[in-house]
Recover the amino acids of this structure.
């Protein structure tokens, strides 16, 4: 079996065949950092992360070459995954094919100014930023994005802490964009127009429309208002899109590309689509900005949300292919579908465009958010719900408990309690090889807990003995600390296949191997928060309401009013909180399982 992945450009599930199976290039369109990313954005980023983790897993087999009987590749594999940060104030109307619209940084500046002028005492998260400094706005939201991405286990964000070139900023690559634009002007794939704009000439690229189905013929008719009338008259075709625009009033601006056709232009800014072409070429193709060296080059994988398919990726393909003189830019295009919330379209007015902080402030473990966002197949519309989030948190807790109990059984072989879930890795791999069927993969992980051999037949005589043993394992399990990261996949793979190891050791390694793809079980342990009155365990966020109840309870206990103290305990239980009195008068608050 080998990995088949749906390819948006061919519209079929087909073998994922990289140029070099040991070193894979993957570009993901990243966030525009003018506001906090919401869970819908993260669904697409996490789908890409899951894909990357799967390709890196030793469980993943890739096909080599396109003929039917060619070999496959398993083993050590490096994925260079790049996710850009769009920090140039490009336009708000991203679905506008010609790049018209409002400057997003200008929108952010207005929003911050409004928040700062509010007299109601509410402090906006961005209150300290100078709204007139677009770079400060971008840096602020970039950092917030990276913090959230790390909490959600996005590997690219973790790696970018030591190698920032994996998350390049568009504003650092404007010179590279200009290099590509000059080449496109020289090769007549681009032209300058009267309003001092540079457009890509879509009629010079016959494959335009192949990805999205929006062919030039269809777009001629206006394509549902996707193009801006004001700019139509100067274009050669309605689908032609902006590569550069002179605009000295734009928030972020640079000198015009170095070309005779725009020699006397004032400062301006690049179009959105050209950003990703330049960064993908610069970071993933050796010598990629030299048109001669980049000739016929492709990257292996390119991802984005389904809203990126048109116009962004269609335009990116056109520019890139004309620059590299190739028919394709990425061998495989990967797009995750939209996220719904509580069965409906996400909406700002309904308050359902949750950010990660909105959820963690409620005491929700980021691992539960991750599982909730990856658990549905990436090509199905996922439905995010508070109930689903609770279920995901519970599921992870069960997995973690299983791990601790298997570790207890390894430490106490005399208990003769054996898990035999090691073979499930094959079933997990089969699921993921089939177009990343993560829902099936997760259900297979669920099975490991029940895969127990007790060493005797369980009947009425032995049932109590088994129950006592399980209780003991549970007790020992509670004292075992969970590792904060999965063991190396290669080590885990060896242990799973090593018959000299015990079944428990092999089953534990199987869970490590699976979790290095899912990324939800072995995580940095969150520390308890101490508020003076109480010690809040991970999963509960302190709130004035809880603090007030705990204070009332402490007062009631002091005056020996135990009835009131018990009532408050019940009130907290109704809020899914359990409390435990600690020596020194403090109370430990934990989520009720
Ligand atoms: Zn992009």
């Amino acid at each position: 079996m080998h990995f088949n992945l749906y390819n948006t450009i061919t519209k079929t599930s087909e073998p994922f065949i990289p140029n070099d199976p040991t070193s894979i290039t993957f570009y993901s369109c990243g966030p525009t950092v003018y506001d906090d990313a919401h869970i819908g954005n993260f669904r697409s980023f996490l789908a890409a992360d899951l894909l990357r983790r799967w390709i890196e897993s030793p469980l993943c087999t890739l096909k080599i070459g396109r003929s039917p009987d060619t070999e496959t590749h398993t083993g050590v594999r490096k994925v260079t995954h790049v996710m850009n940060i769009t920090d140039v104030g490009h336009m708000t109307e991203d679905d506008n094919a010609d790049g018209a619209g409002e400057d997003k940084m200008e929108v952010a500046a207005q929003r911050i100014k409004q928040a700062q002028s509010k007299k109601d005492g509410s402090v906006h998260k961005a209150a300290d930023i100078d709204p007139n400094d677009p770079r400060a706005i971008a840096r602020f939201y970039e950092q917030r994005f990276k913090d959230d991405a790390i909490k959600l286990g996005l590997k690219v964000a973790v790696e970018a802490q030591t190698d920032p070139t994996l998350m390049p900023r568009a504003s650092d690559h404007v010179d590279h964009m200009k290099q590509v634009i000059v080449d496109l002007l020289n090769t007549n794939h681009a032209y300058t127009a009267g309003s001092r704009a540079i457009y890509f000439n879509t009629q010079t690229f016959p494959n335009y429309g192949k990805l999205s189905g929006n062919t030039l013929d269809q777009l001629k008719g206006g394509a549902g208002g996707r193009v801006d009338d004001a700019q139509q008259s100067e274009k050669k075709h309605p689908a032609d899109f902006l590569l550069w625009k002179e605009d000295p009033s734009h928030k972020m601006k640079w000198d015009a590309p170095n070309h005779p056709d725009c020699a006397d232009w004032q400062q301006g800014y690049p179009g959105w689509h050209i950003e990703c072409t330049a960064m993908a070429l610069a970071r993933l193709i050796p010598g990629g900005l030299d048109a001669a060296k980049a000739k016929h080059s492709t990257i292996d994988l390119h991802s984005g949300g389904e809203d990126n398919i048109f116009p962004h990726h269609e335009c990116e393909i056109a520019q890139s292919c004309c620059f590299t003189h190739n028919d394709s830019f990425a061998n495989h295009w990967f797009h995750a579908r939209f996220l719904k919330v509580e069965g409906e379209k996400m909406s700002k007015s309904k308050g359902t465009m949750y950010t990660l902080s909105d959820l963690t402030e409620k005491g929700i473990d980021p691992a539960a958010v991750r599982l909730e966002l990856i658990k549905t197949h990436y090509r199905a519309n996922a439905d995010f719900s508070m109930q689903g989030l609770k279920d995901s948190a519970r599921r992870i807790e069960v997995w973690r408990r299983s791990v601790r109990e298997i570790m207890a059984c390894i430490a106490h072989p005399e208990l003769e309690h054996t898990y035999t879930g090691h073979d499930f890795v094959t079933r997990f791999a089969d699921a993921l090889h089939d177009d990343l069927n993560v829902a099936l993969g997760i259900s297979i992980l669920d099975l490991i807990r029940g895969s127990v051999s007790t060493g005797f037949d369980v009947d009425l005589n032995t049932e109590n003995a088994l129950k006592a043993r399980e209780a003991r394992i549970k007790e020992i399990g509670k004292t075992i600390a969970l590792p904060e990261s999965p063991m190396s996949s290669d080590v885990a793979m060896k242990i799973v296949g090593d018959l000299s190891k015990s079944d428990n050791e092999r089953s534990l390694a199987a869970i490590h191997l699976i979790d290095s793809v899912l990324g939800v079980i072995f995580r940095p342990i969150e520390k308890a928060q101490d508020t003076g009155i109480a010690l809040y365990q991970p999963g509960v966020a302190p709130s004035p309401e809880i603090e007030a109840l705990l204070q009332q309870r402490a007062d009631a206990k002091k005056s020996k009013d135990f009835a009131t103290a018990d009532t408050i305990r019940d009130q907290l239980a109704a809020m899914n909180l359990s409390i435990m009195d600690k020596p020194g008068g403090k109370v430990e608050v934990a989520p009720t399982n």
About this structure: Residues 29, 276, 312 surround zinc ion (CB under 6 Å). Residues 386-411 form the longest helix (26 residues). The chain has a mean pLDDT of 90. The longest strand covers residues 299-305.
